[in-house]
Amino acid sequence: MIFLVLNGLFLLGCNSGAPEQGNHASKSEESIALYVDGIDVTMEELEEEYKYFLGEMGLEKPDSPDHHEQIVELCYNSLIENIVLFDVYMEKKLEIPVEESTIRGIISSRETFPEGFDLLEERVQMWQNRVQRRLAVIAAAAAKSQELSRSIVIEPDEIHQFYAENQHLFTIPLSLDTRVIRVFDPDLATDIHAKVKGGWSFEKLAERYSKERGKAAKGQIFQLNLQEIDPDFITVLEKTMESHVSPVLTSYQGYYIYKVEKRYPEHILEFDAVKKDIEEKLHAQKRSELFREWMKKKKSELNIRIGTPLPFEADEQEN
Fold first, then answer.
1. Which residues contact 82 (CB under 8 A, 6 or more apart)?
2. Contact status, residue 307 vs residue 32, Cβ threshold 8 Å
3. What is the pTM of this model?
4. Of 26, 74, 136, 193, which has the maximum CB count within 10 A?
5. In the chain, where are the structural domains located?
6. One digit per residue, pLDDT tens: the chain, 319 residues?
């Protein structure tokens, strides 16, 4: 998100006394990158915030002018939305805790400090303000979403329709209670399998030979997640009946023999068991839609002008 442009307003909303006025000196047209309802964002400010935007959104530095243009547009949009939300923060007189900087406390307790330590204090204070501004915008978004959601009504027919059209979301796949023996020698695996088929105790053989660890150690029963094992194993185990053992199964981790103790067939959860979850999901979807519509309307009411474009800077290639 982008917050630097809101700093003066934020200080007014969160601190007592006269707020910092920011840079109100006359700005040349060439230095202005963006105008939003009387707020001027300078090229220098935008360049700084663009770097933060890339980092906070997990985006790579663009490698082409077209890619750069797309990200700058996202950056502008984020800035504008935060200006809208900060207006909500101020209008509703929302509050968030303002904490003192740890660095400031350290400095006040010392008579001397290493060269440059005061710059570190400044940097920490900047990030503290940045976090506070982020919290302010989040609080505003939450408050506005809650306000918009008061008009939402989820009808019973909507819940039934969602259940009928999304059966896959409520389908519990086949699961198995199993025991397993894992060894690293193929001949030993073959010998153990023959003993099990001949009536030897799977549990005792597992306790003696199995190298498996954790919940499946020493032949203990565990619920097998079929989505986490080798796909070739799944094909075999899906067909293995209760109290039966699998053939020797091979993977790069060793040789496996499974015994299926209990099968839990694939089934669809009953409507009553998921009704509340569906209602909450539909409510969240409608709340998001209302918020997007509200934000779109608010942005359309703003006086927005793009000034000097943020230039694309290609990485220097080594010769």
1. 1, 2, 3, 6, 137
2. yes
3. 0.67
4. 136
5. 4-150+292-306, 174-265
6. 344 444 444 433 444 333 333 344 445 666 788 888 878 888 888 888 888 888 888 888 888 889 988 998 898 898 889 889 988 999 999 887 655 444 445 445 545 555 555 666 666 667 777 778 888 899 999 999 999 999 999 999 999 999 999 999 999 999 999 999 999 999 999 999 999 999 999 999 999 999 999 999 999 999 998 888 888 999 999 999 999 999 999 999 999 999 999 999 999 999 999 999 999 999 999 999 999 999 999 999 989 888 878 888 776 554 4
Question: Which residues contact residue 197 at a Cβ distance below 8 angstroms, ignoring those fewer than 6 apart?
Answer: 245
Query: 4-150+292-306 sits in which CATH class?
Result: mainly alpha
Measured from the Cβ of residue 289, the count of other Cβ atoms closer than 10 Å reads 12
AA letter at 250: T
At 42, list the tokens.
Answer: 């300078």
